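Appendix B. Chain record.
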Amino acid sequence: MKNDNSRPEVILRHLASDGEPATPTLDTLQFLGAEENREIREGIFATPAIATLRGKKIAVIATDGVEDIELVAILTYFKRHGADTHLIAPKCPKTTAASGMIHPPLRKTHIFSIHYVSPGRWHKIDHFLDDVDPTDYDAVIIPGGTWSPDSLRADKLTLNFVKKAHKAKKIVAAICHGPWVLADAGLLKGRKATAWWSMKKDLENAGAIWEDKAVIDDEIITSRCPNDLLSFVFTIAVKLKS
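Structure tokens predicted for this chain:
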């Protein structure tokens, strides 16, 4: 018998935020509870009968400002299908008083997610970027949220990580604003790709061939938005098993 905590409706309650939001938000409870998104909810958050990805290793790269639903959905899907799935992030940035930036002590071990522009929650980092080798992983995945990919695309460790993974013929994938990182790494030139719609010109300027589709797999896998999450993770899973 399945543990109660594995049921999608229990996960929905766990992901729900309390009270009225103070800012515009991507409400996880509303998103996953919508009838139109039943397939996403059940396809990602229900425990499969067989862990078909056991033995595979997944690196999910993110930092502060990652979109919560995308990070949670990706981590949950691959863990539930048996893959050894790690959240990998840059170390807490060093700041000066002049920058005005303040990082709480928890940032040394966690990153903070968002719900669109509302505060999300803390997520435990499994490994730092400079402590792992991308060639040890079967797939490298970059979730979206505007802030996280915008920081990562300026991070040399991240760019080198995805370039090394691609050179080693590992699966490289990104969703929403995540393809920004792949564009800055020079991996989308001459390839069909998609992303959040406002990024069309960014991808085209990086040499990509833009297509408005839920998922594009032109050696590198890209996807548009949270509504495409199930298609995105399923495409990666199929490629992992091939």
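Further analysis of this model is presented in Appendix C.
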